[in-house]
Design a protein that fits this description.
328 residues; alpha/beta; FAD/NAD(P)-binding domain; 7-stranded mixed beta sheet
């Protein structure tokens, strides 16, 4: 059983930042990722453009360059691969952590491929890998998609987009531009005010002109192989349908956190952490990135989560005396 000073669960931008900071302090660290490096970014729409500028996505002091003012998904994937290679981070990809047991100073980590021991644990698991379910009959059909990638496969098809925030608006517009017959449904009364300022008028105009059919104050009742059933304020209707894009957001893996004794506070809906070190209620387990915000996933992004690594690394390095650190 291999032993490490620290194991970081998750190799997204925040996990990579933690790995870099730990390595720079002589902490022998393994990163374990259930998918590929920056798996969440990989699952973003193919042609997605970040809302922020390159310098706010940088980690490890390495500059990020972009052809335009704001970088795209492909540029970000290339950048984070380069960061991982530059720092020679020890990353195990496509290896899922199944359980973490033990105590501070002697944790046992079981994965889908091996078992490890670690003195400290850093959880940087994000939230993008668990979509919020619709909880309607037929959601398990292959035609239901929680991750929109690109519009081409849906040309000349009847598609339903569920939601009214950024991801839903972008998907609806791109699908429409590519020749799909698009219907948008949302429980609320209108497109969300949080939709990016250059997208909101575009989607609203497509709806106003009848180019994208919309049903607000409505909900999806059932998904059938060739149709969907929608409850509108006036009536229950059935629409011809080939694909459903459930753009309903994502959530942290609360079950995984609970298995380690980490739960959300009832009032704040956030896990309790030390503000200075980001150590959780369970000694020796640190939280990084968006999971620090619990269910408030709109509070932490790459821009601010990337700084968690320094706090955590300083706390871990300080708790492990130089003589006790494993040789890296």
């Amino acid at each position: 059983m291999q032993q490490y000073d620290a194991i970081v669960v998750g190799a997204g931008p925040t996990g990579l930042a933690c790995g870099i900071e730990l390595k720079q302090r002589g902490v022998n660290t393994l990163l374990i990722e259930k998918g590929c490096v920056v798996n969440s970014l990989y699952n973003y729409p193919t042609h997605m453009v970040f809302f922020t500028t390159p310098e706010l996505l940088e980690i490890g002091g390495l500059p990020m360059t972009s052809l335009n003012e704001k970088p795209g998904r492909t540029e970000a994937l290339k950048y984070y691969r380069r960061v991982a290679e530059y720092y020679q981070l020890n990353i195990h990809q496509y290896e899922r952590v199944l359980s973490i047991s033990g105590r501070d100073g002697d944790f046992h980590v079981a994965t889908s491929k091996a078992e490890y021991r670690a003195r400290k644990i850093v959880l940087a698991t994000g939230y993008y890998d668990l979509p919020n379910k619709l909880d309607v009959p037929g959601e398990d059909l292959d035609k239901v998609i929680h991750y929109y990638k690109e519009p081409h496969p849906y040309y000349n098809h009847d598609v339903l987009v569920v939601g009214a925030k950024n991801s839903a608006a972008i998907a609806a517009l791109e699908l429409y531009w590519t020749g799909a017959r698009v219907t948008l449904i949302h429980r609320g009364k209108s497109i969300s005010d949080r939709v990016k300022y250059w997208i909101k008028p575009n989607i609203e105009n497509r709806i106003k002109n009848g180019e994208i059919q919309s049903y607000f104050n409505s909900r999806l009742v059932e998904i059938l192989p060739e149709s969907v059933v929608i409850q509108t304020p006036d009536d229950r209707i059935t629409l011809k349908n080939d694909f459903v894009f459930a753009m309903t957001g994502y959530r942290p893996d609360l079950e995984f956190l609970a298995s380690m004794g980490i739960r959300l506070e009832p009032e704040s809906q956030k896990p309790r952490t030390n503000a200075d070190t980001l150590e959780s209620d369970r000694p020796g387990i640190f939280l990084a990135g968006v999971i620090v915000a619990g269910m408030h996933t709109n509070e932490i992004f790459i821009e601010n989560g990337r700084f968690h690594g320094k706090k955590i690394a300083e706390a871990i390095a300080e708790s492990l005396s130089p003589a006790a650190l494993l040789s890296s």
